[in-house]
Write a structure and sequence with these properties.
Layout: H1 3-21, E1 32-33, E2 40-43, E3 46-50, H2 63-76, H3 84-87, H4 91-103, E4 108-112, H5 115-127, E5 134-138, H6 143-147, E6 156-160, H7 165-173, E7 181-186, H8 198-208, E8 211-215, H9 230-233, E9 242-246, E10 256-260, H10 262-271, H11 273-276, H12 283-298, H13 300-319, E11 332-335, H14 339-353, E12 355-356, E13 359-360, E14 371-374, H15 382-395
Parallel strand pairs: 3-12, 5-6, 5-7, 7-8, 8-9
Antiparallel strand pairs: 1-2, 2-3, 4-10, 9-10, 11-14, 13-14
The structure holds pyridoxal-5'-phosphate (PLP).
Length: about 400
């Protein structure tokens, strides 16, 4: 009998029981994508249409992205073989970093294993570089940014109300003028689909002598003339200190990065544990990501199709009286408002209509904000949208239907 183990096992069982009782137990649906039929997936022996993919442009199945990965796999083998520090850096990684720096008009970029690691590693490295850093974090920031700013000795964290510039200003004014400061926020917020007032936040950063760190994960590839995100679209990239992005969503592959001034990138490269002590991304992945970034940069029409799809889906939901949050982006949240109801809606969509949409519950969103988060990629046909609307009308609780259609 081991006392710690039995206490821990009790703790696990009780915690899991609580999750189940509250309808928050996470089930990972088995969904197998069929590359040439996207957004049709195989689920338990049948076809389902997926509305919850973050591969917003379908680049993960693009023939040039697949071919680049296949060639690199054959030419260079499966794994990177070690950390960049010990086993060397593939020229593919250097080329990808150059491409990403250019995408954001920055001097340099640094590749990480994922967007999560990029945020955690870059933010924690910055905040521990000067004594007495104050970080100002939007209340809806992603878990990966929070992971980079919590529990650091000597670092004070201030949380400003979501997109609330006046609250941010008050917090900035409350700390000593000469203290080092970092403002960390997102451009497109992943659960609501709303957009940050980037220019106003940059104005405050200048007034109070703060640096800025912008997570553009849900915007890179999707907004701006060349897919540089909201900061490119609004002509603000040059005012930001760091831009962070992912290769997993709009670019459809995997990996994360930060782009910034050369010495900032070099400093993070030289100090970030999450970069130095982990194996580099494999050549095939990097080659696919590079092919994707190069393609997406030049394909404004694809970006245009994503925007048109979002407008069409929103219009169809509105016409059917389906309540949705007022998103300004391609992310279309449909509010259900209660964890068990939200899961029941998703279950029925799948069982009765062969439609997959992930229920988003607490703690990803606040209690009462439970929702389905939908995105129509350029590959979702209009008939699929119409079928989705019919299905939602039939399975959503009455309260989620604002009007009779
Ligand atoms: C998904 C996400 C990340 C993490 O990116 P990955 O590449 O998936 O690790 C970071 N920030 C935000 C806002 C995200 O939604």
């Amino acid at each position: 009998m081991n006392a710690t183990r039995s206490r821990f096992l009790d703790h696990c069982r009780q915690g899991l029981d609580t999750l189940r009782a509250e309808g928050r137990y996470r089930e990972f649906a088995r969904l197998e994508r069929e590359a040439d039929r996207f957004p049709v997936y195989r689920h338990e022996g049948r076809d389902v249409i997926v509305w919850s993919s973050n591969d917003y442009l379908g680049m993960g199945r693009h023939p040039s992205v697949i071919a680049a990965g296949q060639e690199a796999l054959a030419a260079h083998g499966a794994g990177a073989g070690g950390t960049r520090n010990i086993s060397g850096t593939s020229p593919l990684i250097a080329a990808l970093e150059e491409e990403l720096a250019t995408l954001h008009g920055m001097e340099a970029a640094l590749l990480f294993g994922s967007g999560y690691v990029a945020n955690q590693a870059a933010i924690s490295t910055i905040l521990t570089s000067l004594p007495g850093f104050h970080v100002f974090s939007d209340a809806k920031n992603h878990a990966s940014m929070i992971a980079g700013m919590r529990g650091l000795p000597g670092v004070t964290r201030h949380i400003f109300r979501h997109n609330d510039v006046a609250h941010l200003e008050a917090l900035l004014a409350s700390v000593p003028a000469d203290a080092p400061k970092l403002i960390a926020f997102e451009s497109v917020y992943s659960m609501d689909g709303d957009v940050a007032p980037i220019g106003a936040i940059c104005d405050l950063a200048e007034r109070f002598g703060a640096m800025t760190y912008l997570d553009e994960v849900h915007a890179v590839g999707l907004y701006g003339e060349t897919g540089g995100g909201i900061s490119e679209r609004d002509g603000l990239a040059h005012r930001l200190d760091l831009i962070e992005g992912t290769l997993a969503k709009g670019f459809g592959v995997v990996g994360g990065y930060v782009a910034a001034r050369a010495e900032v990138v070099d400093h993070i490269r030289s100090n970030a544990s999450g970069l130095i002590f982990t194996t580099a991304l494999p050549p095939a992945t990097v080659a696919s990501a590079l092919a994707s970034v190069r393609h997406v940069k030049g394909d404004g029409a694809l970006r245009g199709r994503l925007a048109a799809q979002a407008r069409l889906l929103k219009a169809k939901l509105d016409a059917a009286g389906i309540a949705r949050l007022p998103s300004e982006s391609h992310i279309v949240p449909v509010l259900v408002g209660e964890a068990e109801a939200c899961r029941a809606v998703a279950r029925r969509l799948l069982a009765e209509f062969a439609i997959y949409a992930t229920p988003i519950n607490y703690p990803t969103v606040p209690r009462g904000g439970e929702r389905l988060r939908l995105c129509a990629t350029p590959f979702h046909a209009e008939a699929m949208m119409d079928a989705l609307v019919v299905a939602l009308r039939s399975v959503l609780p009455r309260a989620a239907l604002s009007r009779a259609a």
